[in-house]
Amino acid sequence: MNPLHLAILLLAPLFAASDELDAVIVLYRHGDRTPVDPYPTDPYRNTSYWPVGFGQLTNIGKQQHFELGKWLRNRYGDFLPDKYSEEDIYVRSTDVDRTLMSAYSNLAGLYEPRGGQIWNANIDWQPIPVHTKPEKEDPVLAMKKHCPRYNQLMSQLFLSKEFQNIANKYKELYEYLTQMTGKTVNDIAQTEYIFNTLFIEELYNYTLPEWTNKVYPTGMQELAQLSFAVPCYTRELTRLKTGLLINEFIEHMHEAISENADNEKKRKKVWMYSAHDTTVANVLSALRLFEHHCPPYASTVILELKHNENGLRYVNVLYKNSTEARQMRLPECEENCPLNNFVALLRDVTITPDEWEEDCELDRIDPATMSMMKQMIVIGSTSIALLLTFCILIYILCGTTKKSQQTYFRLPDSEI
């Protein structure tokens, strides 16, 4: 590393020492878990091989989040009071056992009961609420509420030349995995599921089947990493997939600095979200910060809203996928990204609940198509008007010709 760059990194905290926090948003992946869905020929498909049921948080996962909670307490101890209060923090989780349990484990590390909050001398823990919503009804954090327009765009993406080339490139891999696993594998997501299962089994020191030597990890890793980029591969996909969560982040920041008394109940110091590796990747994609990888257990995205002595409010983005958090720099903005710039850079993917409901409908017409339809309507209307004008002129001309040819008129009979 360049000595000047190193010096800047070392001195950067000193420059911001007098700056103060206004709010912190924390989004993390759950901790260590068992495989969600072992493949049909998996030698470790029986639950007897595992400490808990499939897809469940293990004791290792609980400890990972307990430690993350302590790390957060150490980092934000001067900002977030030691004593829990519902006025300081709001925690939300997807409606999945492993994310809910991760949230509770994290809070156990973040809030050790003190004083009057000690309710049982034998238990160094206190219950703290974690809010959730059924997955199929949650478009914000679970991101699984049905959105026809998003599904249509995904279908179009997979039919694109780029993804057809990917399918052709890995056709033999898909066929090989299908043969060896007993499960039909024909896309990126299915490959990632098998890769993830093998990764966990290897992590637990199980001997992998001999056939895996040919494709794991090297042959599958690139696709597994790519799979986390696919849900937000375009900005329109990102807007429909992650835009509601980004909108919520921005609303929290505005609430934190609002002087409106009506926002006092909404104002929190920390907003915490317990979710999945896909959620972490989606948020990083929305921020244009995702580098192809598989987000590890307890990986964490942090948004810090701060202000300096001049009153300038700015956002720091950090990504913790190991022991320490790494500060990230948004494209087209400095590391201490001014709040107004941060909001402007994310405007293309930010969406409100009403807009999301409207834009998810399949009868929604995109601007380009609407413009083309307007042009066609104008051209059609003009053509019809010209045709009618032509017909009227023909009618008039024909009528005039007939009258000019009629030279004899019968006079009325005088007797009548």
From TrEMBL:
Cross-referenced InterPro entries, in alphabetical order? Acid_Pase_AS, His_Pase_clade-2, His_PPase_superfam, Histidine_acid_phosphatase
Give the reaction(s) catalysed: a phosphate monoester + H2O = an alcohol + phosphate
> Which residue ranges traverse the bilayer?
376-398
Coiled-coil-forming residues are none
Cleaved signal peptide residues:
1-18
The UniProt keywords, alphabetically, are: Disulfide bond, Glycoprotein, Hydrolase, Membrane, Signal, Transmembrane, Transmembrane helix
Any idea of its EC number? Answer: 3.1.3.2
Q: What class of enzyme is it?
A: hydrolase
Task: Tell me the CDD domains matching this sequence.
Answer: HP_HAP_like
Which family does the record claim for this protein?
A: Belongs to the histidine acid phosphatase family.
Q: What is the recorded name of this protein?
A: acid phosphatase
Which classification does the entry list for the species? Eukaryota, Metazoa, Ecdysozoa, Arthropoda, Hexapoda
